[in-house]
Design a protein that fits this description.
The protein is built from 1 helix and 8 strands; from the N terminus they run αββββββββ.
Length: 160
């Protein structure tokens, strides 16, 4: 009789400690992933690059249809990018940082069937028309099996 009571006490102790550990881990992850980025975003006072961006075919050297959609928390940026190549749309995840009027972006294909990657360094400028922003810079991307291609002059305009 007494051993079954001890066993129940032991099980209750183990279950309650597992629940407390799970609650603590869940709370700490919530703080790390939600509260801290929210606070950094509220304290960040640099330029904002949130929103939709379209490749400016008239100003760029490259005649390619491309769009980006970016979300920003503090100086961290993530979002999506897509462009058309030979009537085929290619989609990428975007992540990066904003620092000193520059945006450094990493492009990773959404499809796990592709190994294409790219990196862009873009300067944040004011466009000629009504103080809208534009991103001007260069991109390195994988071209062929083991070649790195340089895209010399890209311009993205902010769609606002």
């Amino acid at each position: 009789m007494e051993s079954s009571s001890n066993f129940i006490s032991l099980v209750i102790g183990i279950v309650s400690s597992l629940m407390a550990t799970a609650l603590f881990i869940g709370f700490s992850e919530f703080v790390r992933k939600v509260v801290i980025p929210w606070g950094k975003d509220k304290l960040y006072n640099g330029v904002r690059v949130d929103g939709d961006w379209t490749h400016d075919i008239d100003k760029s050297k490259y005649k390619i249809e491309a769009q980006m959609s970016l979300r920003q928390w503090g100086n961290q940026v993530e979002g999506s990018y897509h462009h058309k190549v030979s009537n085929r749309q290619e989609n990428y995840k975007v992540s990066g940082t904003v620092s000193n009027q520059f945006v450094l972006l990493n492009f990773t294909p959404i499809s796990d069937k592709r190994m294409d990657v790219a990196v862009a360094l873009l300067h944040i400028d004011e466009a000629d028309d009504h103080g809208k922003l534009e991103l001007v810079g260069k991109m390195l991307n994988k071209s062929g099996s083991s070649k790195v291609n340089i895209i010399d002059y890209l311009v993205f305009k902010h769609d606002s």
